Amino acid sequence: MSKTIAINAGSSSLKWQLYQMPEEGVLAKGLIERIGLGDSISTVKFGKEEDQQILDIPDHVVAVKILLEDLLKHGIISDFAEITGVGHRVVAGGEYFKESALVDEKVIEQVEELSLLAPLHNPGAAAGIRAFRDILPDITSVVVFDTSFHTTLPKYAYMYPIPQKYYTENKVRKYGAHGTSHKYVAQEAAKMLGRPLEELKLITAHIGNGVSITANYHGESVDTSMGFTPLAGPMMGTRSGDIDPAIIPYLIAQDPELKDAADVVNMLNKKSGLAGVSGGFSDMRDIEAGIQAKNPDAMLAYNIFIDRIKKFIGQYFAVLNGADAIVFTAGMGENAYLMRQDVIAGLSWFGMEIDPEKNVFGYRGDITTPESKVKVLVISTDEELMIARDVEKLKNSK
Known about the structure:
Pathway: Metabolic intermediate biosynthesis; acetyl-CoA biosynthesis; acetyl-CoA from acetate: step 1/2. InterPro entries: Ac/propionate_kinase (IPR004372), Aliphatic_acid_kin_short-chain (IPR000890), Aliphatic_acid_kinase_CS (IPR023865), ATPase_NBD (IPR043129). The structure is a single chain. By secondary structure, the chain is an alpha/beta fold. 37% of the residues lie in helices and 21% in strands. The protein is built from 14 helices and 14 strands. The longest helix is centred in the last third of the chain and has 25 residues, at 296-320.
């Protein structure tokens, strides 16, 4: 009997979940927000209880201390020794990591080095890893990479059509992201369909504030929409997704507020997507409210969003030469039923038919009619559970 904590650290946040392993029971979960920004918020949920504090949390080391103290304070654990493993989600593993790995100093340095590929995510993850090592140095510490699931991409899928020296010398290639989520929902889809994953062709659509679509052939990722960084792919909450790269120098020449390529990339990451087109709304609920109010910018943002997701799903029907099911997951994928309806309506040629009585808020499972040739599934993702499972696997291999 042991307890494992799964950590998902961002630049100014730390999301966590504590499991009883190997039973996989959730003992508690929480979120620490605004780390280093003042008026930090720490929320802990356990059983039917919830506790929230507003504190000054200057860095991830202090955040980890508060997290652990809360576990003791609320009686969730009686001693730190009960925690035998910690797993850290890391966005970019580059070509170093094809699977999850036990943490040592070299691994942390590689995570920090790969911050060039995920500047919004890897630095916070590295800070969280170091904080846990400082406070609980003897527990099994594991890093789980969003990119590792996509290391099965064939070379023709991950290479860009630019001079090859930029791959051999600078490692410029498609890495993908959200791999932990795509892997989990593909496994759950196989269970739901009652068929071996090794026989299935699936298109998994992780649609949250970040959006990525993956072609899964017999359990392996063979193509995915995010690229060298998580900026690529369909339109997202605040990210543009794919654009003509010639736009970047053009905007630098035209807009005095954009001084260099870094400024443009920042704009494409943080001020574009749904938010950029709609005038500030990155949340689909706000977009839908804007449509109800006949806001033309909200309608345009929505139509672009649907268009781009349909195009990527259509691409992956070609990549897989057909599919058994499409899986929607993550915040919008699981909850925005109108978005699912409109995406699938534009793909009806492939033989999909939505059952409107099932395609409703809160429903999980198959949302198609019995006659539908391709199934459409709604599955709640659980990246934290996948992290905890990898900790157990590596703990047992030591």
